[in-house]
Amino acid sequence: MRVLIVGVGTRGDVAPYTGLGVRLRDAGHEVAIACHRPHAALVTGAGLEHRDIPGDPLPLLPAGKGGARVSPSAKLAMFAEYAGQVSDGIVRAAAAGADVLLLNVAASAGEHVAEAMGLPSMGVHLQPVAPTGDFPPVMSGLRRSLGRWGNRTAARLLFAVPSPAHAGSAKALRARLGLPPISSREAYRRREAARWPVLHGFSPAVLPRPADWRDGLEVTGYWWPARPAGWRPDARLSDFLAAGPAPVFVGLGSQAGPRAEHYTDLALRALRRAGLRGVLQTGVPGALDDDALGVGDVPHDWLFPRMAAVAHHCGSGTTGAGLRAGVPAVGLPALNDQPLWASRLAALGVGPAAVPFRRLSPERLADALRAAVSEPSYRRRAAELSERIGAEDGSAAVVAAVGRLA
Questions:
Q1: Residues 90 and 104 both lie in one domain
Q2: pLDDT tens digits along 159-201
């Protein structure tokens, strides 16, 4: 069966699907992953087919790709253009051949494509966006609970009353596909009534499945990214690791891009203040001083177990990789689901309280890193969680679900 996985977004929204795709391929399916072109090497490096989705999500981050702020009306226009590009890309990717669609959170346009083409589909989500009273909607920007009723109501409203740009792109897409118009509220009601399946690629040991979720919403365990065929660590990185005590990792994901040099300098000052060595994934590669090395993409399953602690933006996949490695963690969350995962790290006892990205300073980062490496309970708890997570097989549930869809 031809399986098309649609991973719309930044690198972290694509990488976990490479490992999932390999498992589906090993189960006998033909697998393609549709994503933005900068992430094509992740897909082809895993031996899977890449199908291009045009557009660039980075300018939609709060500070914009170049660091410049834009007006709300300009941001809305940017989002509308991007949503149209994504819709076009999903249509072309599905038309190239697919028997089933697996859609990430940002690929909701794929539901309309599946309806028009008569294809079965399901969600493969890295974020728990379904309504629950346990926490506020993770893509809303809310950081405090609204109470159980308020949390659920706010999440339902996000599905039923999306942004004008999102609603407009869905309306245009349905017209293009020859489908009758439908409101976002009705589309949500249909999906819920049909118990549209959504599997979530994170561990129940990290975030238990909410008890108020409906049938069809399941938590499977993590989907680990595939390591590129033939990958070997750079000699400079291997030499740096061997030259002294275990360093700490500091990475900010896509958020650092517009101001890479600023955040690299901030991290260096924090390392010197804490008296630690560091591997920095902040956008400036190469030797930064005697005790710090800047790196590009390095498989986290190889790098993180060699760290004394990891400080990162708390994307779902990076959070899982740190826990899998069994090392203490410092959350540096910025937006969307990141504050949720950061709060879970602290609640699970694997690291100190998070340092929100907007409050990041050399002093705060240094204090958090020092606490992470010096408190024995953090490493002990991280090791316990690593053992539990390592016993899970999140991909197996997806393989079984695809078989049922067939």
A1: yes
A2: 888 777 777 888 899 999 999 999 988 999 999 999 999 999 9
Check whether residue 29 and residue 70 sit in a common domain. Answer: yes
| Domain span holding position 197 | 2-226+392-405
Region label for 216, one of left (φ > 0), alpha (ψ between -120 and 50) or beta (otherwise): left
Closest CA to 317 of 254, 271, 362: 254
Rounded distance, CA 279 to CA 277, Å?
Answer: 7
The residue among 94, 92, 86 whose CA lies nearest residue 56 is 86
Domain identity same for 115 and 142: yes
139 in the same domain as 10: yes
How far is the C-alpha of 10 from the C-alpha of 199, rounded, in Å?
Answer: 20
Instruction: Give the per-residue pLDDT at 69.
Output: 66
pLDDT value, residue 405:
86
Same domain, 246 and 185: no
Report the CATH number at residue 75: 3.40.50.2000
Residues 193 and 328 in one domain: no
The secondary structure of 293-317 as a DSSP string is EE-S---HHHHGGG-SEEEE---HH
Asked whether the whole model's pTM tops 0.90, one would answer yes
- State which residues of the chain have pLDDT below 50: 64-67
At residue 402, what are phi and psi to the nearest 5 degrees? Answer: -65, -40
What is the DSSP-derived secondary structure letter of residue 82? H
Identify the helix (H) or strand (E) that includes residue 190: helix 184-193
Based on the domain organization, do 183 and 79 belong to the same domain? Answer: yes
Pairing of strands 292-294, 286-289: antiparallel
Q: Residue 218's beta-bridge partner residues?
A: 199
Give the count of alpha carbons within 13 A of 356, CB side only.
9
The tally of domains found in the chain comes to: 2
Looking at the fold, whether 163 and 67 belong to one and the same domain comes out as yes
Return the sign of the alpha-carbon dihedral for residues 14, 20, 25, 26. Answer: positive
For the chain, helix, strand, coil in percent to 5 are 50, 15, 40
Q: What is the 3-state secondary structure (H, E, C) of 377-406?
A: HHHHHHHHHHHHHHCCCHHHHHHHHHHHHC
